Structure formats: C-alpha cells, structure tokens
Amino acid sequence: MKLTYDPRYNVAYLRLADASAPVRTIEVSDELNVDIDDEGTVHGIEFLNARRQLEDFAGATFSVENVATGDTVELALP
Asked: Are 54 and 14 in contact (CB under 8 A)?
C-alpha cells in the first residue's frame, strides 16, 4: 500500500494493489475516483482536490489498526 501526493495537480493516490491487468476508473464523485479490475479488486483510490479532502496532512499521522487484534501502528507523514 502506498499513498502519494502530487502538489502540482493537488491529487493524492492510495495504491492498494499492483495492477497486473487493465483497470477501469469509476468516478464516485467530482473529487473521488476508484480504480477496479474486472474481478472487482480495488487497486487504488484517487483523491482530486486532495488538500481540501485530506486537509493539510503534512506533519500529521496515519493510523493503521488491525481490528482483529486491536494493534495499531501510527505512521508520521512528511
């Protein structure tokens, strides 16, 4: 999983899986797209107008929680 941000276009992309086959983009809203393959696997989520959607995440933390175990890892974002 990888989160990228391009300030030139104000777009963030959360890549969940590498695509080995073509994906199609589903426009969920004017500011959110989802890349999905023919089998229904979600490969990524694109946030348009990312600054407004994610708020200025510089210096913030990203929390990943395993709900089965309750373990949480906090990652600092640059």
From this structure: no
Pairing of strands 72-76, 61-65: antiparallel
**For residue 74, pLDDT beyond 80:** yes
- 30 vs 78 pLDDT, higher one: 30
* pTM, entire model: 0.72
- Token representation of residue 9: 């276009």
Give the distance from CA 22 to its chain's centroid. Answer: 19
For residues 3 and 77, what is the distance between their CA atoms, to the nearest angstrom? Answer: 10
Alpha carbon 52 to its chain's center: 14
* Side-chain half-sphere exposure of 50, counting CA atoms within 13 A: 18
Q: Where are the domains of the chain?
A: 2-76
